[in-house]
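User
New here, help please:
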Amino acid sequence: MNRRCAAKLLVAPAVMAVLRTLGEDYRGEDHAPTKPLALENVMKLCRYDDDRLGVVRGDMVHDVTEAQTQIRAAAPYAMKGDAVIAALPAWRSRLEEMAAKAPGKPVSQVKLLAPVARPSKLVAAPTNYKSHIDEMAARAAAQNVKPSPAIGTAGLFLKANSSLVGPSEGVAIRFPERRNEHEVELAIIFGREGSDIPREKALDYVIGYSIGLDMTARGPEDRSFRKSIDTYSVLGPWLVTADEIPDPDNVPLSISLNGEVKQNSNTKQLIYDCRKLIEWGSTFYTFYPGDVLYTGTPEGVSPVKPGDTMVARIDPIGEMSLSVRAHRVGG
């Protein structure tokens, strides 16, 4: 039997133990869940300040850090993936109840971190918009260098987890003599473990979405090396649950630099759409709760320098603003 057709959910013992502790109903062969990840109501979940967990309602953040503390305490240290993301379906109603009782704090008064604390990996798609391929091919021709191969040839690539930051942390330019560019992308966040995922079930593995910035320093080195610089993987401003975006392959995305719109497109222009990326990526990798998949960037990538301000927007996720600064040696 074709292994994609025979795909099944794989739940690591560590993750299963966490979810059993937290009340998730698991049964059946290979511990396959009896229900999909879809949440009953839309939720915006953020991390902020000193690793606090919050539910965002309107322009206010409601502190639910106590839930995060309990979830992490129940999670085996060696589990693969993020314990809070894995537990989110089981804890949804309690998080809502806790948020309703917690006083709100204006979003503008907190420091937003990446909404996922411990992904097992950051995966990214190169050359996934034809318009971006065309603009980079023109640049390569002008520089008399070989253009990047198509996504089906290039494959996906990994970015170092240590490069992951939230909008409050900004982007630090480590090589100002090079061309450093922004790349705005829809970021998929996985909520359950899966391998060899068929296309028709791909979105069942998604817990939510965020805005992603796949920052890059141009140069001759391997793509993963240049894109894994500290602060070069931005995720935020929060996670919106998957039911907020019923079709991730028709979502507008844009970014402005110092008030000038540079990238403005829609995920319907993706060459490998979100379902295809999940299906294809899962033939190489096992995805775990909290893993992030950057889906690719459209045309309009442009250089950034210290002192710049970038504002990225994806509806209905929202908007995130971040500053660009110079890397400080030794810190």
In short: The radius of gyration is 19 Å. The helical segments are 13-21, 65-74, 83-101, 130-143, 151-154, 223-226, 274-281. Confidence is low (pLDDT under 50) at residues 1-36. The first strand starts at residue 8 and ends at 9.
